[in-house]
Amino acid sequence: MNNPALGDAAKLVGRILLALMFVLGGWSKINGYAGTQAYMASAGVPGILLPLVIIVELIGGLMIVVGYKTRLAALALFAFTIAASVLFHMNWAQPMQQLLFMKNLAVAGGFLVLFAAGAGAYSVDKD
């Protein structure tokens, strides 16, 4: 593609689509705090980590949307997504868990591409 404006527009839309799940997920964890802590505990993850999870999802997602420190945020969300996959979606006897694991791998791949490509011109970073 030899159209930089189109490429930058695609990066903007891609950033928004990748980050949407994390921003909404972080917000829903605030609204359903006790339930989320209980779910985490049922998977063997200490509920005391929930504030960190919310920060990574909400702040990291917003950083991706606006394109601020995009490469760093993309790398952090890549690692977070892989960790969440391993901690919460390894029960492949349940087809839905296998699907969620594979979806998370695809999202993690999107974050790696964003890390490599940068945010584009329509961002705070402008890279």
TrEMBL record:
It is a multi-pass membrane protein. Its main location: membrane. Keywords: Cell membrane, Membrane, Transmembrane, Transmembrane helix. The chain crosses the membrane at residues 12-28, 48-68, 75-93, 105-124. The keyword Transmembrane helix applies. It comes from the Bacteria. It is found in: Cell membrane. Pfam families: DoxX. PANTHER family: INNER MEMBRANE PROTEIN YPHA-RELATED (PTHR33452:SF1), OXIDOREDUCTASE CATD-RELATED (PTHR33452). Belongs to the DoxX family. This is DoxX family protein. The lineage of its organism: Bacteria, Pseudomonadati, Pseudomonadota, Alphaproteobacteria, Hyphomicrobiales.
